[in-house]
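Table S2 (continued). Query chain:
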Amino acid sequence: MKSKKQVIEERPDYKKLINAVLNSIDEDDIENINNHGIDGGYGKFVYYRDTVTFYKKHKDDIKKLAQEMAQDMGENIIEMIGGFNCLKYFDYKNHKWTDLEGQDVIGETFYGNKYDDVVANALAWFAGEEVCRWFEE
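Corresponding output:
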């Protein structure tokens, strides 16, 4: 596993986000998060009051990270987020929305200042899991 210093050197644009994630979990949990997902209840990624606050505080970095991932995958950003397992608003297999309101809710949370707790939570989890992956890449 890489050290915090190595990860920050590889991704200096995300130093603030890396530190925020590490301040919200125990470093010993990184492997478990990578193996099982962050939704298992780790650190400050459990309650909406914490995950929504995390999302709001780090929204710009999380947006940048999600946009980079969507671009790398050749996906529409809103559909990519809608397809997160914890949301399931978008069905990739059939390439259709399972919840049409999901598009608006994601868009308002991602691009606007109206926050849906479920979507903000999903985006905080996304950021936490991605940062943890960087330690094992």
